[in-house]
Specification:
single chain, 142 residues, alpha+beta, 2 helices, globular
Length: 142
Amino acid sequence: EQLFGVKFSTTLTCMEDPAYVTKAEETALQLTCHIDKDVGYMMTGIKHALQNERLSKRSATLGRDAEYKKESLISRLPAYLTVSFVRFFFKKAEQTNCKIIKDVKFPFQLDVLELCSPELQTKLTAERTEFAKFADYQAEQM
């Protein structure tokens, strides 16, 4: 949990009743990168997984199942960030699992600042500034 645990602040919004919004905290051991025809880069897949998730669950206000949109922001980053590539999907017509064989590009250094909550972004920006100053100082010494 300490080394690999990622904490998310999630917002569930009912698509049929936008006034009904639920906020919660979730934890996971990895980020998921959903691969489909639109995903060519790892960051695109991670953003899609965190911001465009749709699910169906029972609505207390409507009294029936309703569609919800789930949006997540990272509120705690771990020491080691694990990213899981989701390369399988289920074909309903054929009742089989299919593997997506697609080239997905990923950066040498993954910058997840834009996926973080505003509070975490503030903390990280301050540390980034100090790190940039230190890197500049080291470059001058050489």
